[in-house]
What we know:
Largest sheet of chain B: 2 strands, antiparallel
Strand content of chain A: 15-25%
Number of strands of chain B: 2
Mean pLDDT of chain A: 90
Strand order of the largest sheet of chain A: 2-1-3-4-5-11
Helix content of chain A: 40-55%
CATH superfamily of the largest domain in chain A: Response regulator
Low-confidence stretches of chain B: 1-13
Oligomer: heterodimer
Mean pLDDT of chain B: 88
Radius of gyration of chain B: 21 Å
CATH topology of the largest domain in chain A: Rossmann fold
Number of strands of chain A: 12
Distance between the termini of chain A: 41 Å
Low-confidence stretches of chain A: 16-24
Largest interface: A-B, 30 and 32 residues
Helix content of chain B: over 70%
Largest sheet of chain A: 6 strands, parallel
Radius of gyration of chain A: 22 Å
Strand order of the largest sheet of chain B: 1-2
Structural class of chain B: mainly alpha
Number of helices of chain A: 14
Distance between the termini of chain B: 12 Å
CATH class of the largest domain in chain A: Alpha Beta
Order of helices and strands of chain B: HHHHHHEEHHHHHHH
Amino acid sequence: xxxxxxxxxxxxxxxxxxxxxxxxxxxxxxxxxxxxxxxxxxxxxxxxxxxxxxxxxxxxxxxxxxxxxxxxxxxxxxxxxxxxxxxxxxxxxxxxxxxxxxxxxxxxxxxxxxxxxxxxxxxxxxxxxxxxxxxxxxxxxxxxxxxxxxxxxxxxxxxxxxxxxxxxxxxxxxxxxxxxxxxxxxxxxxxxxxxxxxxxxxxxxxxxxxxxxxxxxxxxxxxxxxxxxxxxxxxxxxxxxxxxxxxxxxxxxxxxxxxxxxxxxxxxxxxxxxxxxxxxxxxxxxxxxxxxxxxxxxxxxxxxxxxxxxxxxxxxxxxxxxxxxxxxxxxxxxx
Amino acid sequence: xxxxxxxxxxxxxxxxxxxxxxxxxxxxxxxxxxxxxxxxxxxxxxxxxxxxxxxxxxxxxxxxxxxxxxxxxxxxxxxxxxxxxxxxxxxxxxxxxxxxxxxxxxxxxxxxxxxxxxxxxxxxxxxxxxxxxxxxxxxxxxxxxxxxxxxxxxxxxxxxxxxxxxxxxxxxxxxxxxxxxxxxxxxxxxxxxxxxxxxxxxxxxxxxxxxxxxxxxxxxxxxxxxxxxxxxxxxxxxxxxxxxxxxxxxxxxxxxxxxxxxxxxxxxxxxxxxxxxxxxxxxxxxxxxxxxxxxxxxxxxxxxxxxxxxxxxxxxxxxxxxxxxxxxxxxx
Lengths: 335, 332
């Protein structure tokens, strides 16, 4: 044990002694990314994009990713760790809109700025939030299904886990669109917990219960829309016959859009992650910081504006996935 | 030997309680089949679609994955063990198999299937080795494996799903043969093989003996460690089989597939009348147990009942099944 410590120490000393290390006058920042969980594809994309931020790649930011394991308490404990280890800033993707507030306050009390990304947290102490408005996506997807069925007919809605903010907001959006069309009836509305397998069974049962009556399918995420499509296929129907929509733009969904089986709306994980880090670094470094992520130029025409980097909220726009942009989106992920 | 002492009093006055006892006996032995039939009748009255062939294709297909897991789980529970790792083994086997049958470099489906089954059996063997060889409690070993195998699943493809599975492989989950879905045929074949093994082979009798009374099983010359080892290998391999079907059904192996599936598998076994204290139970009961869970989920979807109630009803049935089990033991 002692030998090991000695070895570590000597390596560290040697590193300090090397000229480029000593000469590195540029300040480095210790940033923690506390995400709700690393099991879904979306969060994987988010983390990979964050690691790809220019500031992380050139070593300005020393990034530590904390996996919240879908548990509010775990995330809370990770905040304690970051506070005691004196992190310079925290990028926060909370599991729960309410439970995260206390953690944010703890960090703020220790003068560590916290910037939210992807999911919201109800706290005035949050320095800023970079995310996409789920209600907008919910409205867009419902709108596209309703248009595809000609403004009248029966639809079913497959919901996310009841009570999660994305489910609540996307439902709001779904209903806002449906309210505009009196001839569209919602036959069923039930949760499949973001799961493809659960949605597959649910849709099979609905196709039996309402044989020939379901004209459109609104899935509150891609996984569930994909499960529904499998059920439609298993029933011997062509997916095109029942227009289906999802949200997020996971890779399988992009492929399904390419095949003409569904429509989906891309939630820009890269924009949310890299934009969040820019805003956080602005908080730490002050007005001299210049944003380095691509989203500020990519979405400039869509109304996203860096300003002086201190806005309370930045809305990253949604991008409908089309047969035209599908290949480019997939290629971006492959690298 | 007369198990019902009151029946010796052959007077007219004792006839009523005797009949009642016989009823109770019947209820304990076939209660679960009866419950299943009552449930089906109720649902067919409530919804005209319930009895349609198409709907039964759905129910059977939806039951196939849990049914296969529950077959392995029955073997494990008969030896007084438990396997909490089935959901994770399902996921890791599915993703390994999928990686071999995806995209342009897809190998023959047989290779994917063989690799998936091998991974499941191998990890099951680790479970079995630790439990039988080192006498670590099954709960602890398989709880550990639940976590380890899930982690391996995420490591294997960096947390990303594997899609674009070859059509040959997908047919395991999506194909039909003679109007019957392939997963249902796989479930039926698996059931028959393991039912036969349990009922008519020395290994099958040894499984009961190990769970019934391990000491006397040992003295009567049964290699209890070997039996214990192999039930976990079986459970691992069947988890893998279920994983292959799930990946083929959803056209993609997802690393988060099968989370909490162990609970439904254990529920099917318990509802089917297998005792958690080992040595008592049948595979037929397990199959009925799995069907009951499938029918409840399907029926309540047809009726448009909220999934919250589905959970409540499923839980109540599990407890009721155990109560039946307790009342049966009291009689014996």
